Amino acid sequence: MFSEQELTQTPLLKIWVPWMSSSLSQRRGSSRPQFTNCPTMIVMVGLPARGKTYISKKLTRYLNWIGVPTQVFNLGQYRRDAVQTYKNYEFFRPDNEEAMKIRRACASSAIKDIDNYFAKEQGQVAVFDATNTTRERRGVIISLAKEKGYKVFFIESICDDPEIIEANIMQVKLSSPDYENYDKEEALVDFLKRIDCYKISYVALDEEKDRHLSFIKIFNVGSRYLVNRVQDHMQSRIVYYLMNIHVTPRSIFLSRHGESELNLLGRIGGDSGLSSQGLKYAGALSEFIRGQSIKDLKVWTSHMRRTIQTAEALGVPYEQWKALNEIDAGVCEEMTYEEIQATNPEEFALRDQDKYRYRYPKGESYEDLVHRLEPVIMELERQENVLVICHQAVMRCLLAYFLDKSADDLPYLKCPLHTVLKLTPLAYGCKVESFYLNIQAVNTHRDKPTNVNIARKPEEALRTVPEHL
Amino acid sequence: MSVIENNTEQCGNSLTRELTQNPLKKIWVPSSKNGLPERHISQRKVCMTNCPTLIVTVGLPARGKTYISKKLTRYLNWIDVPTKEFNVGQYRRECVKIYKSFEFFRPDNEEGLKIRKQCALAALNDVRQFLTDEGGQVAVFDATNTTRERRETIIRFAEQNGFKVFFVESVCEDPDVIAENIVQVKLGSPDYTHCNTEEAVADFMKRIKCYENSYQPLDEELDRDLSFIKIIDVGRRYLVNRVQDHIQSRIVYYLMNIHITPRSIYLCRHGESDLNVKGRIGGDSGLSARGKQFADALGQFIQSQNISDLKVWTSQMKRTIQTAEAVGVTYEQWKALNEIDAGVCEELMYEEIQLKFPLEFALRDQDKYRYRYPKGESYEDLVQRLEPVIMELERQENVLVICHQAVMRCLLAYFLDKTAEELPYLKCPLHTVLKLTPVAYGCKVESVCLKVEAVNTHRDRPTNVDVSRQAEEALLTVPDHQ
């Protein structure tokens, strides 16, 4: 029966919810469709130096960015905490009873932390990063998960290319705390012996014997995949992501459009053209790019005039993505912060209270932006050298993905005009180089003011507004 | 300080060409000397390669190759990748008018083999024409292609023509699935019009046998340099090898999300809204009294359908949520299901749009699919934003989607394989529920009108779409309102 139940719009997210709460209101008021009701354990499988930690960290970063609370539980870390000093590979010998005891204890400890993460910390996905190379160990994990009602998804990385393995070891193992006191050759030799310790008892996931499990087997860094029994939306997304990432060296260049006419006036949004300084930047950007001698560079812009004008100066073909358009400020489009304070002081305060989730009336939130940028990120993962010419809020979202910034940090990341960021994947993360191209521009960065209360005075609200004409 | 107008960029930088905004799609493009937009710039389309793709199905008869071919083709066309399927069985039927029996397919039937090879070549020829001369991006070559030799021929053909090749193999040994297949799509085939059910099934099983001996499935080792996906047991397991590019990655993702579990998808709009009554577009108003009645009727209808595990989705606009509230089950809100953004025309009546923006109004009638409202969206944009919804609909089973007119048209066009030209004019009246049930190679549609009066919001394309037309001509097809 349609009751007199009225709807009210939540002031921050601008979501319509029933005025009175009812038994049905559990999943209401969320700005994104919820697909999971039960936590998922992702269990890595594979010999050492097969990229398990690389995959764990990258996947975790991606899931957190799209709003799925995820955490890595790295067994090696637990072992290092338990056994303060690493001597040598003998610790990992299958006949080392003492060590086996410790390693089993570490595994239990990690699993206990996972339980806690799900039960007490609202985690949705836990990535159990360990070799998990025996059917027995995997069996233990499966029963524990079953008891608690977690879904389990295995990710196995298989690689027998000695070059890739050695490169791995050079990139991430030699600098591990385990090998602080070793020189390079000794470390390499020891690590290879460590791998041998696991090889004897390694039982890979099997198409037949493990046909009831949900898993993906990744062969040779992605040239082949075997996917078995994908259970739900989350696992499907994970598989899609894993199938799109690669390890070929490349760089991603992020930049905003050149300074625009509206930037000069301190107005947000809109679709104005470049100012004369902005045009100078476009030229400087072109020189910079040429100087970098980048092979096969792809250039992406938004559909807004200012990014396209900037790209034009490069003299190379570029693709326009609507998804790269600046955040839609709705009723506040083309206003100055002063005008927003004058006409919508409550909105202005709400935004300062939770800048990530705040949605402009008839506009978007940073959270919405991340959602719309997801296909851009997916394609960036597939590509090699790319220059993305975009906007302040958009660049913050993309940067947060690459640098693993939280939702709280994201809306305050510094992305000044006329500065190019060069991101190069390195080891488990991303190297950032910042290039200011020496063309003057206004500052468009507004810090969070001290007073975010709705009752604050205009001066308090406007204290951090950057200067403009 | 004035804002620089269009087309008159003053600068010391001669590298920046002037930009003009294409009036239909509102895309900024550089203009050439005579002020007309150049074709140089590419819009973000799915297929960024210049290289067409040939998808080649592989598998014994009754393994779902044609089902996959048709579904994949429908999906790719919907996301604007011009795709066409070429079913060799169709070519064979045109060549050999009457099908006698499975003997045609016996491996020792020289005559039969000759004809079948000719048909395959004829189909490949048409593929070449489609991809090279007709602007096609993807061709789906739907045949058994069960021998390595046949596949080699195709690979050579593709190399000669500069096409990429991607194999989609379906492997299934579950006799129940195969039997169901045969019942669903083979018995109704032109081949078996003159047979009764038992005869047809017996013949078809013998037909499958003809292929079994020479069947060489794609092999992890032997075929490791090829790009392919092996689908095992209707999606229980997949083997994916050497995905080359974006389009193949999307194809793999799609194939891994579809299923054949019987289910129904219910599409309807929100109940009549206050703005609907006033003949105004867009906005975020609540339901009118009749709209609320519809919401109740919808609740009752859904209950009567006794649907197992129904998921309900709405947009984030008040009118769909109010409607869902009456259904009385948990629902998910998708921002992606929000109505098309009419930009500067939000909350206007058609009469007002004609008055304030007669040029825009005419452009929209000229190409309603690609037309983007100033500071708003186009149907083309809508399809792009609805793609994740479609993907999730494919994963799900029973779903009720409560959405909006333009959104519903886009979703319907996907399920019923409508073109971009037809899409914006599909009839999606208020207070009517469409029940879509996959059947054979397509979708059965049942339309249920819930007998609560509502305004008509459907505006047909007027005869005169010229920008110089009279106001009356523009407004001829506007539906009545208060």
Describe this protein's structure.
The complex is a heterodimer of chains A (469) and B (482). Chain A is α/β, with parallel strands linked by helices and 469 residues long. Chain A is built from 15 helices and 14 strands. Chain A has a six-stranded mixed β-sheet with strand order 4-5-3-6-7-8, with helices on both faces. In chain A, strands 11-10-12-9-13-14 form a six-stranded mixed β-sheet, with helices on both faces. In chain A, strands 1-2 form a two-stranded antiparallel ribbon. In chain A, helix 2 packs across helix 3 (97-120) and helix 11 (337-343) packs across helix 12 (345-353). Mean pLDDT of chain A is 93; it is low at 22-28. The longest helix of chain B has 24 residues, at 110-133. The interface between A and B is large, with 73 and 67 residues.
What can be said about this structure in brief?
The complex is a heterodimer of chains A (469) and B (482). Chain A has 469 residues and is an alpha/beta fold.
Averaged pLDDT of chain B: 91
Q: Please compute the radius of gyration of chain A using only Cα atoms.
A: 25 Å
pLDDT averaged residue by residue of chain A:
93
- How far apart lie the N and C ends of chain B? 45 Å
Question: Structural class of the secondary elements of chain A?
Answer: alpha/beta
β-strand percent of chain A reads: 15-25%
Q: Would you identify the regions of chain B where 5 or more consecutive residues have pLDDT less than 50?
A: 1-14
SSE run of chain B = EEEEHEHHEHEHHEEHEHHEHEHHHEHEEH
Distance between the termini of chain A: 57 Å
Family (chain B): In the C-terminal section; belongs to the phosphoglycerate mutase family.
Active site (chain B): 270 (tele-phosphohistidine intermediate), 339 (proton donor/acceptor)
Organism (chain B): Phoxinus phoxinus (Eurasian minnow)
Keywords (chain B): ATP-binding, Hydrolase, Kinase, Multifunctional enzyme, Nucleotide-binding, Phosphoprotein, Transferase
